[in-house]
Design brief:
By secondary structure, the protein is of the alpha/beta class. 52% of the residues lie in helices and 12% in strands.
Length: 193
C-alpha cells in the first residue's frame, strides 16, 4: 500500500464539504472521515460554549485517528477490482471533512480566541492537500447552521483562504454545483498524485 495521503475539505458551513468527501471516497473507493461536530451538537444540544469547541476538536482528532488506523491496518480493499490500475494508489487516500483550521476559525469567529490545544495541533498536524470549498452553493437552512448572511459567508471564506495562502500544504479552490465540485476535486487530486 502507498503511504497514506490525507486530503481535507475546509470552508464555511453549507459549502458542500461533507457531500464532497462522501462522493470522493466513493469515487476513489476509499474511506472518509466525517465532521465530529454535527453528531456532537445533535446529541448534546445546539447551544455550545467555548469549552465545547475544545471537546469537539478532540473528538474530531480521535475520529480522524480512528479512520487512519482503519486505513493502515486493513488489507487492500475488496471493493477495488484487482485489475484496476488505480487501486493501489487510490486505496491510500483518506478524505477528511474538517480539521483544526476549521476549529480555529470557529473559536476565533464566535469567541474571539482559540484554545492552545487547537493551535498546537495545527502546528504538528500533517495533511497532504486542502480542498477549499467556495460559498457559491446556495445556503440551506438546518438546525446547526448559523450564518445565512452573504456577508458573513464571504468573510469566513476569506479567513479560510488567508489561512491556506499562509501555510505550506498545497490547496485548491473548489467551486460550482455539487457535480462540478466533484469533478474539479477529482481533477485536482489526480494532478496532485
Amino acid at each position: 500500500m502507498q503511504p497514506l495521503k490525507k486530503i481535507v475539505a475546509i470552508g464555511p458551513e453549507c459549502t458542500g464539504k461533507s457531500t464532497l468527501c462522501a462522493h470522493l471516497a466513493h469515487h476513489f473507493e476509499t474511506l472518509w472521515c466525517p465532521e465530529f461536530a454535527r453528531d456532537y451538537l445533535l446529541s448534546n444540544g445546539i447551544s455550545y460554549t467555548y469549552e465545547d469547541l475544545l471537546t469537539i476538536a478532540k473528538g474530531q482528532l480521535a475520529l480522524e485517528d480512528e479512520c487512519v488506523s482503519l486505513m493502515v491496518t486493513r488489507q487492500p480493499p475488496i471493493t477495488i477490482p484487482r485489475h484496476s490500475p488505480l487501486s493501489a494508489r487510490h486505496s491510500s487516500l483518506l478524505f477528511i471533512d474538517t480539521n483544526m483550521y476549521v476549529m480555529k476559525v470557529w473559536c476565533e469567529y464566535v469567541f474571539g480566541k482559540c484554545h492552545q490545544f487547537i493551535l498546537d495541533e495545527i502546528a504538528s498536524g500533517k495533511y497532504d492537500l486542502y480542498l477549499l470549498c467556495n460559498i457559491d452553493l446556495p445556503w440551506v437552512k438546518d438546525e446547526l447552521r448559523e450564518y445565512p448572511d452573504e456577508q458573513a459567508r464571504k468573510e469566513l471564506y476569506n479567513i479560510y483562504k488567508d489561512i491556506l495562502i499562509s501555510q505550506q500544504t498545497p490547496w485548491v479552490e473548489i467551486t460550482g454545483s455539487n457535480e462540478e465540485r466533484l469533478q474539479n476535486a477529482i481533477d485536482a487530486i489526480e494532478n496532485f498524485l
